[in-house]
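Figure 2 data, in text form.
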Amino acid sequence: MKFKSKLFAALLSAGMTTAAATAATETTTGNSRAEKEIATRLHELYPSTRISDVHATAIGGIYEVVMGKNIGYTNSEGRYFMFGHIFDMTTQQDVTQQRIDALNVVNFAQLPLEDAIKTVRGKGQRVLAVFSDPDCPYCRKLEHELPRLDNVTIYTFLMPLDGLHPESSKKAKAIWCSTNQSQALDNYMMNDEMPDMTKTCDNPIERNVQLGQKLNINGTPTLISGDGRVLPGMAPADQLEKFIAREQK
C-alpha cells in the first residue's frame, strides 16, 4: 500500500502542481453507483491523497478525479492514471482546461481588500486584483501596462517571494507603510525609487503570503478578475483589457 501511495504521489507531482492546502477532505461524486464505487476504491488505494471529486467523463470507462485544484483521469479500477488534457475535437474545446478554470475561480467578494493597495483609474467601475512581488521583474513589467487600463479599480496584494527575492519583504512593508501607498508602489516598480525603508507600521504582508498559498497562487504576478477568473503571469494591456471585459458578458 505504501508503494502505491508513493507511486501515485510521484505521478501527481510529475504531472501537475501540488494541490492547495484547502482541498476538500470529503469526496463528492455523481449519482451513479460506479462513480461512488471508484471514489471509495481510490480512497482505499491512495489514502494520503486528498481526492475531492470523482465523475464519469464523456469517454466510456474513464473517470475524472479532482485532487484539490488538480485533475487526473483513471479507469474503473483506479489502477491506471493519466495526466494531461482532454480535447473535444467536435467543439474544438479543451475540456480539461474548462474544469481547471472552474476549480480555480476565486470569490472576489471574499478577498480582504483592506490588505491591498487601492489604485483607481478613471471611474474605477471595474475591479482587478493583482498579487505582486516588488522585486519580481515580470511584476514590474506589468506595472507599466496597468496605467493603460481605464475605468478600473486595482487592488494590489503585496506578496513577496522571499525564496527568490530575499529583500522583497522589507520593500513590501516599506511601500505599505508609505504615506501614499499607491504612489510609493508606482515609484519603486516603474522608476526604481526606493521607499523610505526606515518607516514601520502594522502591515498585512504575511497575511497576503498566506492568502496566496490558500488560493494556490504559486507565482507573481497573478491577476484575478471581478468574476473570479485567474490569470497567471504578465500580460500586455490589450490582453488585460480582454481579461477584464469578459466579466461584462
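Caption note: The longest helix spans residues 2-15.
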